[in-house]
Design goal:
Layout (H helix, E strand, L loop, with lengths): L1 H24 L4 E5 L2 E4 H14 L9 H21 L5 H4 L2 H16 L4 H7 L4 H24 L4 H10 L5 E2 L2 E9 L6 H15 L4 H8 L3 H4 L4 E6 L6 H7 L6 E2 L3 E3 L2 E11 L2 E2 L2 H28 L1 E3 L1 H19 L4
Antiparallel strand pairs: 1-2, 1-10, 3-9, 4-5, 4-8, 6-8, 7-8
Helix pairs in contact: 1-14, 2-3, 3-13, 5-7, 7-13, 8-13
């Protein structure tokens, strides 16, 4: 009996030791190395949670697939930033103005809700995580500027890209749209009658923006006179609205249009019909595309030169071994 009790006591002590080792003094695992610089598990965990937050997810309710995808993104992004730090000087990047901009953004995040800081920390996002993520953009921008200077886009590249992708530069119908929405999904007869009345006022010379401000039930655009901005015929609106909107001529106002959201009166300005973009029209977007290609090529060459090693598989094996050791220690003696 004494022997059994003594065995159980030893097992409990071992379990406690392993437990404390895991909670308090566990060494931060290296997930990847960039040259001689290490990227740790704790950094990746914080960045994964930060990426979840900026992607519109609650870090505490992620699915396994989401966790895996975000963690992979966090590792790849961290590798890029750490590689860039070897060729871009911190003093040129983290200027007084940039540091202040980062600090101000964090203050704004925390000021939005008195419990914001505590909520972020509960989600596994510390102030240091936020600061690293916000400052990282300055390194990306600085390296991008360096690549653009060292490897500028040539006119020959631009023309070759346009010729090879000409079919991609078909500009859809576009227009600056405004609308007045009357009623809602219930599609009441009285709302339709009101919309018809407002259309008659517009036909009589009433100001569209003033009518929209006073009557539109689309609160998101009403205050700006029904302004929906420059829009394209690409399926972003419900069919009834889009068909009516892009059938209008410049400065024309539609009849009342019924959709699932209510009754619309639509105005179009700056109407441009579908057309093949010329080389000059497409040049700006092509430049951005090729600059991105140059950036990707340069960062891959930099990572190859420095030597990048991902070690997450090793970290998982280590954790699995530790879990197995804990389970073994907790098993009752026979």
């Amino acid at each position: 009996m004494r022997k059994i009790s003594r065995t159980i006591s030893i097992v409990l002590v071992l379990a406690l030791i392993l437990s404390f080792a895991g909670c308090g003094s566990k060494k931060d695992t290296t997930v990847a190395t960039v040259g001689k610089d290490k990227i740790t598990e704790s950094h990746i965990t914080g960045l994964t949670n930060t990426l979840a937050l900026v992607s519109g997810y609650d870090p505490t309710t992620l699915t396994d697939d989401q966790k895996t995808q975000l963690k992979d993104s966090a590792i790849d992004y961290s590798i890029e930033v750490e590689a860039i730090k070897t060729v871009v000087k911190e003093k040129d990047v983290l200027t007084k103005d940039n540091v202040k901009a980062t600090d101000d953004q964090i203050k704004q995040l925390y000021a939005a809700d008195k419990d914001a800081k505590a909520t972020y920390e509960k989600q596994g996002i510390t102030e240091d995580n936020l600061k690293w993520f916000l400052n990282s953009r300055y390194y990306i921008d600085a390296y991008s500027a360096k690549v653009n200077k060292d490897d500028p886009v040539t006119d020959e590249e631009l023309k070759a890209y346009y010729d090879a992708h000409e079919s991609e530069f078909l500009a859809p119908d576009s227009a600056h749209l405004y609308h007045i929405l009357v009623g809602d999904a219930e599609l009441k007869d009285e709302d339709k009658a009101k919309a018809e009345e407002l259309k008659a006022q517009l036909d009589g010379g009433a100001d569209f923006a003033e009518i929209a401000k006073a009557n539109s039930t689309d609160t998101g655009s009403a205050e700006s006179g029904g302004d929906l901005g420059v829009s394209y015929k690409n399926g972003s609106f419900v069919k009834e609205f889009e068909d009516a909107a892009f059938a209008l001529q410049d400065d024309q106002i539609s009849d009342v249009v019924q959709s699932q959201f209510g009754f619309h009166i639509i105005k179009a300005t700056d109407v441009t019909k579908e057309h093949q973009e010329t080389f000059d029209e497409a040049k700006e977007s092509i430049t951005t595309t090729i600059q991105n290609e140059h950036f990707d090529k340069a960062i891959e060459a930099l990572k190859k030169k420095l030597g990048v090693k991902k070690e997450e598989a090793k970290a998982e094996k280590s954790d699995a071994k530790e879990d197995k050791a804990t389970d073994s220690a907790a098993e009752p003696a026979n």
